[in-house]
Every structure is written in C-alpha cells, then in structure tokens.
Amino acid sequence: MKTIAFKDLDHYLGQTIRIDGFVSRIRDLKYVQFMIVRDISGEVQVTLEKNEENQKWNELVSHLTCESTVKIEGLLAYNEKVKLRHMELLPTSIEVTSYSEEELPLQYQDAHSALLDTRLNYRFLDLRRQANQLMFQVQTSLVQGMRDFVLQQGFIEIHTPKMIGAASESGSEVFKLQYFDREAYLAQSPQFYKQMAIAAGFEKVFEIAPAFRAENSNSYRHSTEFTSFDIEFSYIDSYEEVMDFEEDLLIAGLRRVKEQYGKPIKEVFGVEVTVPTKPFPRIKLADLYQALKEKYGFEMNYEDVGDMNAQSEKLASQYAMETYHHPFLFVTDYHASKRAFYHLRKHGVPQGYDLIWKGCEITTGAQREHRYAQLCQQASEKGLGEDVKFYLEFFKYGCPPHGGFALGIDRLTMLLLETGSLKETMFLFRGPDRIEP
C-alpha cells in the first residue's frame, strides 16, 4: 500500500490508507489512546480505542516515545469533533519503524528554548521545526524559478571543479589542501571556469554549486562555504545588459516563491513576499555617497572609500525605499582598486555593479575584460602572476564580449525570510569556528 502524504488526506476520507511519519504527541487515556503523527506536509490524529481487539496495539502505543517513527494502516474517517482537520485515522496495523530516546537534547519546536550554537550542534533535530522545513521548501522554489528562467533563455548548465591548482581570483582567502604530492586549493567561485566556457563558445552558462572563502569573519551574512548561483553570457555591449538580466532572473524566482509559498511565509515568518518591478533603480557610487551624507549625515570611512560597507548598504536600502519606493538598488562606478582585475574598465572605471537588497549586498556583477593584452595588464597591476597564468590562456585565441554575476542562495534565503543570520538559513553552517556536524 502506497504511503499517503498528509497534505493529500482530504482525498482519501472513508478509505483504508497507509501513513508514515514522526510521532509528535501521545495521549494515553483510560479508554482511548491518541497520537498526533506528522510528515513534512502536515499532521493527522490517530485514534485507538482500548479494547481486547486492539490490545496488541494498545500495549505498543503505551511504550511508544515521541519522535519515534511509525507506519500505520487504517480507515481515515471524518469526525467533526476532531479539531485537527476534522478527521482521524482508525488503525488496523501499527509498526514502529524506529524508536526515539525518551529525553531529547533539544526542544526543537521552540527556537528560543536553546542557544543558536546548541541548535546547530543538534541541527538534525532543529531542522524538524516547521519553520525550518518551510525555509528549505521556499529555497527550493526560489532556485527552481531561477533555474527554469535561465533554461528558457537557452543557458547551458556546467559543473566546474572545486579543487584547483592555483589560488583563484584574488590569490588570497583560499583554503589549501594536499593533492597527492602537490598543493591545491578550494575554489572561491567558478568565475574563471565559466569564462572559459564563454571562450569555448558556449555563449550562455550557469552553475549552482558550492564555493569556499577562507574569510575569518563572524558576521551574520558570511560563511566559509556557501551555495552560489552563477551566470555568464556572451555578446553584450554593456554591463547594463547584465543588470537587466539579473532583474528578470530575480523576478522569476520571487514570483515562483510568492505563487507557491506566499501564504505560509506570511503565516510562519510574518514576511510579505514582494515581486519587484522593472527597472530596479540605479545610482553611481559617488552620487550615493552624496545622497547618504545629505539625507542621513553618513560619511564613508577612509579605508572603504571607493566601495561599500555594511552600514552604507543598510542606508542605501533605506534610501532606495524612501526615494524610489523600491526594495532593490544597483550601485555602479566603483573604484578600480576595489574591483577584481577581470572587470572591463572604461576611462579607468570598472563596468560593474553591486546589487543591494534589504540592507545587504547580494551580487557583484560586471562586464568582463575579454581582450588578452588588457587583461594581462590589469592582472599585473593587481600583482597577480603565476596564479592566473592558466586563466589568461583562455583569452589568447579569441573570446566574445561577455558579463555575468553570482547570487548567494543562502544569503538570498536569509533576506527573503528575514531570518537575521546565515546560521539559520543554511542546511549546515560553516564558519571560522564551526566545521561540525
């Protein structure tokens, strides 16, 4: 007999069915036993009278512990007295598929009953909480909406190596590892390899994969391993086209989430999912500095001039809502010293942007430098030599003008659901002080 998902039980009233799930609660009364059993989609009440016919099952339930898993067959009956969906399962067979110990190390139903570090230590229990399970259903919907969009646009999905022979991009903040008799590194991003695909004539590529950053940061939005949604595409005339594409991508993903989970997100997280409109507002960095100074009295500290920092990002979002009535803001015209060497420059200005959402940067995108001689010069200016030699080879034999960006899926989910920390959003968080479980 096929297991029925609890969300579909309304279609099976009056029928003999099978369910599988966790035991959430047990009430063992004088004449009857009640169990609340759950799966990821909902709960159902199991009602078992105490009588001679049920003696075997009564004894089993008497010794059952909450969080054990069960397989139950029986008649699904309507009962208006049952508060939980006005239905109950009257069992004819109960099988305990696993027993849980009596005392849980974590009361996972209440997120405030334990410190976050304790919850992360027992993440397998913490993830049983409804909000956490909904979070990953939402994340799946978001990624699927964006994936479907890029596939409709003719993109090719690639899978690039995560072990590389030279330190990528900046030459710093990489994890070293032993690769047989030589040193290797974990990739910070697929940037070099997705550009290799462009040089190979793939034209439009994307990848959804892990990336690694050896940043000793303990902020709410950083982690040492995260999931990145990377985009790169050819034959562009301006980074404006990259921004246009990202607008469409985010709209597609957020629209999918709103359609599938808008109501439960509002109920569980108290967040209204908003599908943004085009175009997203755009502002040059210097103009933003001026606006933040005039409106909020904010001045960028010396070491961050030419770039953004956490405080300016928060104010930028506030400015975007107050000025443009829009949750997103593109910021352009960063200083070359603050941007990667492979960003194309015009009159010394990198042709790229950051995208700010809900007070946080979610993307750095750009038109790439595709001309070999210019790329070599810019790499040299950054002091990069042997580390990027293999990458520069991609551009020796012709490469189309192209651009792209990357979105951190975990950070997007954090901002979408307003959880306040990547530790809450990631399936298993990795940071400077956490490598387990």
TrEMBL record:
<dbReference type="GO" id="GO:0006422">
    <property type="term" value="P:aspartyl-tRNA aminoacylation"/>
</dbReference>
<dbReference type="InterPro" id="IPR004364">
    <property type="entry name" value="Aa-tRNA-synt_II"/>
</dbReference>
<feature type="region of interest" description="Aspartate">
    <location>
        <begin position="191"/>
        <end position="194"/>
    </location>
</feature>
<comment type="similarity">
    <text>Belongs to the class-II aminoacyl-tRNA synthetase family. Type 2 subfamily.</text>
</comment>
<feature type="binding site">
    <location>
        <begin position="213"/>
        <end position="215"/>
    </location>
    <ligand>
        <name>ATP</name>
    </ligand>
</feature>
<dbReference type="Pfam" id="PF01336">
    <property type="entry name" value="tRNA_anti-codon"/>
</dbReference>
<feature type="binding site">
    <location>
        <position position="364"/>
    </location>
    <ligand>
        <name>L-aspartate</name>
    </ligand>
</feature>
<feature type="binding site">
    <location>
        <position position="213"/>
    </location>
    <ligand>
        <name>L-aspartate</name>
    </ligand>
</feature>
<dbReference type="InterPro" id="IPR045864">
    <property type="entry name" value="aa-tRNA-synth_II/BPL/LPL"/>
</dbReference>
<dbReference type="InterPro" id="IPR012340">
    <property type="entry name" value="NA-bd_OB-fold"/>
</dbReference>
<feature type="domain" description="Aminoacyl-transfer RNA synthetases class-II family profile">
    <location>
        <begin position="136"/>
        <end position="432"/>
    </location>
</feature>
<dbReference type="InterPro" id="IPR002312">
    <property type="entry name" value="Asp/Asn-tRNA-synth_IIb"/>
</dbReference>
<dbReference type="GO" id="GO:0003723">
    <property type="term" value="F:RNA binding"/>
</dbReference>
<dbReference type="InterPro" id="IPR004523">
    <property type="entry name" value="Asp-tRNA_synthase_2"/>
</dbReference>
<dbReference type="GO" id="GO:0140096">
    <property type="term" value="F:catalytic activity, acting on a protein"/>
</dbReference>
<dbReference type="Pfam" id="PF00152">
    <property type="entry name" value="tRNA-synt_2"/>
</dbReference>
<dbReference type="GO" id="GO:0016740">
    <property type="term" value="F:transferase activity"/>
</dbReference>
<dbReference type="InterPro" id="IPR004365">
    <property type="entry name" value="NA-bd_OB_tRNA"/>
</dbReference>
<dbReference type="GO" id="GO:0017101">
    <property type="term" value="C:aminoacyl-tRNA synthetase multienzyme complex"/>
</dbReference>
<feature type="binding site">
    <location>
        <position position="361"/>
    </location>
    <ligand>
        <name>ATP</name>
    </ligand>
</feature>
<protein>
    <recommendedName>
        <fullName>Aspartate--tRNA ligase</fullName>
        <ecNumber>6.1.1.12</ecNumber>
    </recommendedName>
</protein>
<keyword id="KW-0963">Cytoplasm</keyword>
<feature type="binding site">
    <location>
        <position position="368"/>
    </location>
    <ligand>
        <name>L-aspartate</name>
    </ligand>
</feature>
<keyword id="KW-0030">Aminoacyl-tRNA synthetase</keyword>
<keyword id="KW-0648">Protein biosynthesis</keyword>
<comment type="subunit">
    <text>Homodimer.</text>
</comment>
<dbReference type="GO" id="GO:0004815">
    <property type="term" value="F:aspartate-tRNA ligase activity"/>
</dbReference>
<comment type="function">
    <text>Catalyzes the attachment of L-aspartate to tRNA(Asp) in a two-step reaction: L-aspartate is first activated by ATP to form Asp-AMP and then transferred to the acceptor end of tRNA(Asp).</text>
</comment>
<feature type="binding site">
    <location>
        <begin position="408"/>
        <end position="411"/>
    </location>
    <ligand>
        <name>ATP</name>
    </ligand>
</feature>
<keyword id="KW-0067">ATP-binding</keyword>
<keyword id="KW-0436">Ligase</keyword>
<feature type="binding site">
    <location>
        <position position="169"/>
    </location>
    <ligand>
        <name>L-aspartate</name>
    </ligand>
</feature>
<dbReference type="GO" id="GO:0005524">
    <property type="term" value="F:ATP binding"/>
</dbReference>
<dbReference type="InterPro" id="IPR006195">
    <property type="entry name" value="aa-tRNA-synth_II"/>
</dbReference>
<keyword id="KW-0547">Nucleotide-binding</keyword>
<dbReference type="GO" id="GO:0005829">
    <property type="term" value="C:cytosol"/>
</dbReference>
